[in-house]
Amino acid sequence: MSSHNILLLPGDGIGPEVMAEVKKVLNWLGSQGAAKFETETDLVGGAAYDAHKLAITDAATARATQADAVLFGAVGGPKWDDVPYEARPEAGLLRLRKDLALFANLRPAICYPALADASSLKRELVEGLDIVIVRELTGGVYFGEPKEIVTLENGQKRAVDTQVYTTSEIERIGRVAFELARKRRNKVTSSEKRNVMKSGVLWNQVVTALHKAEYADVQLEHQLADSLAMQLVRNPKQFDVIVTDNLFGDILSDIAAMLTGSLGMLPSASLGAEDPATGKRKALYEPVHGSAPDIAGKGMANPIAMMGSLAMALRYSFGLLEAADMVESAISNVLASGLRTGDIAAKGQNAVSTGEMGDAILKEMQRLAG
Ligand code: NAD
Ligand code: IPM
Ligand code: MN
């Protein structure tokens, strides 16, 4: 029986609420005997700040480094608006991404047939949608130096963020996108703003050269990031794999979320490089959404993005493909049965709570398991 160490970092707001549903599923999967899951829980974000005055401690970061996978809820909220910048809740997540070198963020956007009417776009535009945004996660303007606010002699302040990419950073994320496309519909759309940014010029050159040298069998197109944002809402089904930088990937994936009906639907996997000795890679799985302060504590959050992130962990970190498929089929079947949390409910439809949605998914998994 395989055994897997998982660090749970529920975080803030709806993070712990959606994590509670995933825990139910993990416990049940563990009880089935196919695999053993050892879970530990730690603090991150505002919860860590309240306890330690830090967005994440060294000890929690070390636990994350040692775990086979991290499941992350969400961080942030108005309660921590005034904490020092270095200790803001989001810094905990950014530290994990950087320290674990999780450079590849896969954000699949799938529109379940039953939800085609929950999207803000017309049914025919989103029905059957299945795209993946491959977001570079440890470089770009998120981490480039200098990053500062300085006071000038004239009393004005000057804020600087720096967008930096190197050849090898672009190449390794490009490779992830091409490899993924080969297992899908064999098309990659690379996105930057080479018309304005030097990093965009290099991005375009490196992706083009990599394609020519190693992936000529994959269809490659380039789209400027602003135009791609427009195309995502005009005709999203033209895409298969989109590869882009850290900031564009952040923004484009929130747009993609609405194609699926709700931000509460989008899972993600943040992956490091494969260790050639063990074949393993560090990984953190998290919903694309945040801590949703507007609905936190009300039992209204949709747990499906978190549940889908668990499915990605089962697939990518633990090789438990059947269990991963089972989670995803259960989500699909429960949606087909008409059950909806508030964010995906039709006008006037009764919405179920976070716990009711989680229970229904678990029950459906139990039914599928026979
Ligand atoms: P958000 O994603 O938290 O919420 C945006 C909107 O989507 C809200 O109306 C919210 O109610 C809704 N929503 C999000 N997830 C939902 C779910 N599972 N079910 C139902 N509705 C859902 O974005 P925001 O309000 O801009 O940010 C709030 C805080 O979260 C900020 O502090 C931000 O920095 C942080 N944040 C954290 C993460 C993360 O931890 N990975 C991601 C994004 C934002
Ligand atoms: C995301 C979030 C994060 C980001 C924040 C919370 C740091 O928006 O994962 O999409 O900007 O990357
Ligand atoms: Mn985001």
Describe this structure in words.
The protein has 370 residues and is α/β, with parallel strands linked by helices. It folds into 2 domains: 1-103 and 272-370, Isopropylmalate Dehydrogenase, CATH 3.40.718; 104-265, Isopropylmalate Dehydrogenase (3-Layer(aba) Sandwich), CATH 3.40.718. It is built from 12 helices and 12 strands. It has helices at residues 15-31, 46-52, 58-66, 89-99, 123-126, 167-182, 198-214, 225-234, 246-259, 304-316, 321-336, 354-369, and strands at residues 2-11, 35-41, 69-74, 104-110, 130-136, 144-151, 157-162, 187-192, 219-224, 241-244, 269-271, 283-285. The protein has a 10-stranded mixed β-sheet, sandwiched between helices. A two-stranded antiparallel ribbon has the order 6-7. Strand 6 and strand 7 form a beta hairpin. Helix 1 crosses helix 10 (304-316). The longest helix is centred in the first third of the chain and has 17 residues, at 15-31. It is globular and about 65 Å long. The two termini are 20 Å apart. Bound molecules: nicotinamide-adenine-dinucleotide, 3-isopropylmalic acid (IPM) and manganese (II) ion (MN). Manganese (II) ion binds at residues 250, 254.
In short:
The chain has 370 residues and is an alpha/beta fold. 41% of the residues lie in helices and 20% in strands.
